[in-house]
Specification:
The structure holds two protein chains of two kinds.
Chain A: E1 5-7, E2 10-13, E3 19-24, E4 31-37, E5 44-50, E6 53-57, E7 65-68, E8 75-79, E9 88-95, E10 101-102, E11 106-110
Parallel strand pairs in A: 2-11
Antiparallel strand pairs in A: 1-3, 3-8, 4-5, 4-9, 5-6, 7-8, 9-10, 9-11
Chain B: E1 3-5, E2 10-14, E3 19-21, E4 24-26, E5 31-38, E6 44-50, E7 56-58, E8 64-68, E9 73-78, E10 87-95, E11 103-104, E12 108-113
Parallel strand pairs in B: 2-12
Antiparallel strand pairs in B: 1-4, 3-9, 5-6, 5-10, 7-8, 8-9, 10-11, 10-12
The chains are: A mainly beta, B mainly beta.
C-alpha cells in the first residue's frame, strides 16, 4: 500500500460546472476525512466517514457539496455549481486511530 | 469545541539556530495534540503527537514538543534547524474521547536562512 491517493492532482473548471474528486485511503484504515485548505490557512474540516457511514458534516459543507464512501473503500467529493470561492486545496486523510495519513490533495481552481 | 492558536504566522531563522513554534489550544475536555508539517505542494505529514504520559514528546527530524496543561500550550522546538526544515507547520487538537476529527491551527511558516 503506497498511502492515500487523490485524483486528480489539479482541476481547473468554469464557474457553474460540477466537479468530482476521488480519494483512495490506506486499505486497512476505517476512517476517512475530507478537509479544505485555502492559501495561508490551516486545513478546515469538511466531513468524515467511518467505514461507509458519514458521521459528521461541517457547516462549511453547503448543499452544493456531497461526499460518499460506498462500501467503505474509496470516497468521492462532488461540488455542484462551482463558485470562485470553492477554489482551494481539497485534502483527504485516512486513519485507524489517532494518526492521520494525508494524500497530496486536489487543487481546484474555479475561473 | 476545540480551537488552536498559532501566534506566529511566519518565523525566519538562520541555519543551525534553535527555533520554537508556539501553539496554544482551547478545549473544555481532555485533548490529544499533534504537530504536522507540510512541504510545498505536498500533503501533511505527522511530526509528533501527545496522547498521554510524558509531557515531552519527541518526533521525527529532531523535533520535540512539550505539553503544558496549565498553560494550554504545546510548543514545538528544534535545537538546530536545517535548510530542509523550511515548511509550513500546523498544530492540531482532537478530543481525547473520540477519534472523530482533528482541528488544525492556521499554521506557522518556518523559513530557514542560509
Amino acid at each position: 500500500d503506497t498511502g492515500v491517493s487523490q485524483d486528480p492532482r489539479h482541476k481547473i473548471t468554469k464557474r457553474g460546472q460540477n466537479v468530482t474528486f476521488r480519494c483512495d485511503p490506506i486499505s486497512e484504515h476505517n476512517r476517512l476525512y475530507w478537509y479544505r485548505q485555502t492559501l495561508g490557512q490551516g486545513p478546515e474540516f469538511l466531513t468524515y466517514f467511518q467505514n461507509e457511514a458519514q458521521l459528521e458534516k461541517s457547516r462549511l459543507l453547503s448543499d452544493r457539496f456531497s461526499a460518499e464512501r460506498p462500501k467503505g473503500s474509496f470516497s468521492t467529493l462532488e461540488i455542484q455549481r462551482t463558485e470562485q470561492g470553492d477554489s482551494a486545496m481539497y485534502l483527504c486523510a485516512s486513519s485507524l486511530g489517532t494518526e492521520y495519513t494525508f494524500g497530496s490533495g486536489t487543487r481546484l481552481t474555479v475561473v | 469545541a476545540q480551537s488552536v492558536t498559532q501566534l506566529d504566522s511566519q518565523v525566519p531563522v538562520f541555519e543551525e539556530a534553535p527555533v520554537e513554534l508556539r501553539c496554544n489550544y482551547s478545549s473544555s475536555v481532555s485533548v490529544y495534540l499533534f504537530w504536522y508539517v507540510q512541504y510545498p505542494n505536498q500533503g501533511l505529514q505527522l511530526l509528533l503527537k501527545y496522547l498521554s504520559g510524558s509531557t515531552l514528546v519527541k518526533g521525527i527530524n529532531g523535533f520535540e514538543a512539550e505539553f503544558n496543561k496549565s498553560q494550554t500550550s504545546f510548543h514545538l522546538r528544534k535545537p538546530s534547524v536545517h535548510i530542509s526544515d523550511t515548511a509550513e507547520y500546523f498544530c492540531a487538537v482532537s478530543e481525547e474521547t473520540s477519534y472523530d476529527k482533528v482541528i488544525f491551527g492556521p499554521g506557522t511558516s518556518l523559513s530557514v536562512i542560509p
